[in-house]
From TrEMBL:
The gene is Nbeal1_0. It holds the Pfam family Beach. Gene3D superfamilies: BEACH domain. This is NBEL1 protein. It comes from the Eukaryota. SMART domains: Beach. GO terms for cellular component: cytosol; membrane. GO terms for molecular function: protein kinase binding. Keywords: Repeat, WD repeat. InterPro entries: BEACH_dom, BEACH_dom_sf, BEACH_Domain. Residues 1-274 form the BEACH domain.
Length: 274
């Protein structure tokens, strides 16, 4: 697969899907859903210029520190973390770039994810301000908040329907602007959900991304996923998210085991290292 990708015989999209599959990710498990990268950082221009490197996200950095301003906070958090019981390793992020709640967050307008989201929120929609209502606003929130580190899901590159409220769900209204949450607000350069998907997919297959995608793959699936390289890259997540970090079979206490399983499912899971 790698050789085919290097020779440009398969697309970036196909390569990412295959890596996700090899690393144990699947559409059948929300806790291990396929992970895709944010690839752009320009969500405000009238036109999207894919020949300009400045429109792309820096793929060599975890999403939590793409904004240089956050790097200091993230570093300090890691260096100052002490677990009095000595069980929990230091980490940069207490949340994860891929978890079930994040998948439902993006896909809230489409069943069965709508129902799953409502179940997660004890029988109702989460408050409107926390819904996925705008792509530019979601990106801005990531840049402002080092604790929000959601990457994307594959649907952002092929499935325009998830950006439309075709079922007419009442998702509430935003507190500040009093605006109703309906279809997802698109970047200025996208004229419709289909246009967004077309341009976003084109960005994924662009020359810039083809030249830099391996840097992101190292962080998510490769050698910068754990160990000293991960520490240096500001890419260490809460210990429970790593494969093999917890031996559930060794836990004899049923309650403790259930609690840990719940935590692992909610926290998100780092893909198997390839």
């Amino acid at each position: 697969v790698f050789q085919k990708w290097v020779n440009r015989e398969i697309s970036n999209f196909d390569y990412l899907i295959q890596l996700n599959t090899m690393a144990g990710r699947t559409y059948n498990d929300l806790a291990q859903y396929p992970v895709f990268p944010w690839i752009l950082r320009d969500y405000t221009s009238e036109e999207l210029d894919l020949n300009n490197p400045a429109v792309f996200r820096d793929l060599s950095k975890p999403i939590g520190v793409v904004n240089e301003k956050n790097a200091k906070t993230v570093k300090e958090k890691y260096e100052n973390f002490e677990d009095p019981l000595g069980m929990i390793d230091k980490f940069h992020y207490g949340t994860h770039y891929s978890n079930a709640a994040g998948v439902m967050h993006y896909l809230i307008r489409v069943e069965p994810f709508t129902t799953l989201h409502i179940q997660l929120q004890s029988g109702r929609f989460d408050c409107a301000d926390r819904q996925f209502h705008s792509i530019p606003a979601t990106w801005q929130a990531l840049m402002d908040n080092p604790n929000d580190v959601k990457e994307l899901i594959p649907e952002f590159f092929y499935f325009p329907e998830f950006l439309e409220n075709q079922n007419g769900f009442n998702l509430g209204q935003l507190q500040m602007s009093k605006e109703m949450v309906n279809d997802v607000v698109l970047p200025k350069w996208a004229h419709s959900p289909e246009d967004f998907i077309y341009k976003h997919r084109k960005a994924l297959e662009s020359e810039y991304v083809s030249a830099h995608l391996h840097e992101w793959i190292d962080l998510i699936f490769g050698y910068k996923q754990r160990g000293p390289a991960a520490v240096e890259a500001l890419n260490v997540f809460y210990y429970c998210t790593y494969e093999g970090a917890v031996d559930l079979d060794a836990l004899t206490d049923e309650k403790e085991r259930k609690a840990l399983e719940g935590m692992i499912n909610n926290f998100g899971q780092t893909p198997c290292q390839l």
